[in-house]
Every structure is written in C-alpha cells, then in structure tokens.
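Case study 2.
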Amino acid sequence: MTTMDFFQHQDAARRRTAGLVFLFVLAVVAIVLAVYVVVAALMDRLGDLRLLAAVGGATVTVIAVGSLYRIAQLRTGGETIALELGGRRLESPHYGSGRTPPVERGGRDGAGLGHTRAAGVCPR
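Prediction:
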C-alpha cells in the first residue's frame, strides 16, 4: 500500500479540479450551441453569427447568475445544506447553553445513511 503526502494529495486535487472545470466549460459550450440551434431553427436563421453571439451571451448570463446564486446559498454552511436535503434539527438536552444541535437527515429514499451517525446526523 502506498501512502501519499500532503503535496501529492494537493496535486491530485488540482488535477481533479482542472478536469471538472474543463467539463463545466464543455457543458456550457454544448448548452449554448443547443440553445442556438433551437432558436436559429425556429427563426430560420441558422449560420447567423450575430444570433449566435446574442443567444450565447444570454445563455452564459443565465448560467453565471444561477451558478453565483447557488454558490451564495452554499456559503451559508452545512446546516442550510442539510435542511435543504430534507434534514431536521435534532432536539436534545445535551445541546443547551448556546450550542447548535446537529441536523437529522431524512434522506429521500432512506438508503445509504449508515455513515451519517458518525457525523452527528441521524436518519429518521
């Protein structure tokens, strides 16, 4: 078994991040082209570069605004995400004096929740 040090983990994470960014950009380009083809076909203007620029700009703007909105939501922390995924706050006498109790995760289908107990989250 080989062990990786911090710097190897960091390099591996950077490679994965670069791959994910590449796939995201590829997905945005594919979405722009798909929307352009539909709009251009409806308007009978296939090959119009000005239409491509307009549709591309509008599509990228919608994707950017949606992405920034989601990033802002995720910055609020783990509790918000757990509640969004169907979790509920646990009530316990052990969480008095200003401590925030953990959030219980219900899960959409109830499967795969065995690991959540260790993280202070319990299935319903």
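The radius of gyration is 22 Å.
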